[in-house]
Amino acid sequence: MARAARVTQITSIEEGVPARVTLDAADRRIIEMLQEDGRRAYGSIAEEVGLSETAVRRRVQRLRDAGALQIVAVTDPLQLGFNREAMLGVRVQGDVRAVANEIAAINEAIYVVLTAGSFDIMVELVTEDDNHLVHVLNDRIRAVPGVTEVETFVYLKLAKQTYSWGTR
């Protein structure tokens, strides 16, 4: 049986900003409906938007091809055995882009961004437990050439997480 591909969007820092996609009201409504239920049938969406099923399918494919839309299963890490989440503030000496790209290649790093401020890079980690977190911090993150300091913010309780901002 084929193994499902891991849906991850890693953009090399050198790639720059992707071209912006222009959305009309129908595109925005299609995105909103897919954010509510990514498995919703195109025919059902078409009825509500006032387009044909083929037109909805084409619009979704255009958004996917442009990289503006992904349809994925969002999971709760706690229910899947990943009991420790943390945000890291990373300070770097040297090429911040190279360090960010290397950290982005670490499986436990689910979010990596270059920042302006007291940290050069912010990294979100999802690990099985505290021992796994220590391993990733010590043996993976701090081992990246150029990393000079890491400050760890351990998540105690998630207050809000949303994916519905895409059409504002």
Quick one: biggest sheet? 4 strands, antiparallel
CATH architecture of the largest domain: 2-Layer Sandwich
CATH class of the largest domain: Alpha Beta
The percentage of residues in β strands lies in 15-25%
The helicity comes to 25-40%
**First-residue to last-residue Cα separation:** 40 Å
What is the CA-based Rg, rounded? 19 Å
Describe this structure in words.
By secondary structure, the chain is an alpha+beta fold. The chain is 32% helix and 18% strand. It folds into two domains: 23-74, Arc Repressor Mutant, subunit A (Orthogonal Bundle), CATH 1.10.10.10; 77-154, Alpha-Beta Plaits, CATH 3.30.70. The chain has five helices and four strands; from the N terminus they run H-H-H-E-H-E-E-H-E. The chain has a four-stranded antiparallel sheet.
Could you give a short description of this structure?
This protein is an alpha+beta fold and 168 residues long.
Task: Outline the fold blueprint.
Elements: H1 25-36, H2 42-49, H3 53-65, E1 84-92, H4 96-104, E2 109-114, E3 121-127, H5 130-141, E4 147-154
Helix pairs in contact: 2-3
Spell out the key features of this protein.
168 residues, Arc Repressor Mutant, subunit A, Alpha-Beta Plaits, 4 strands, 32% helix, disordered N terminus
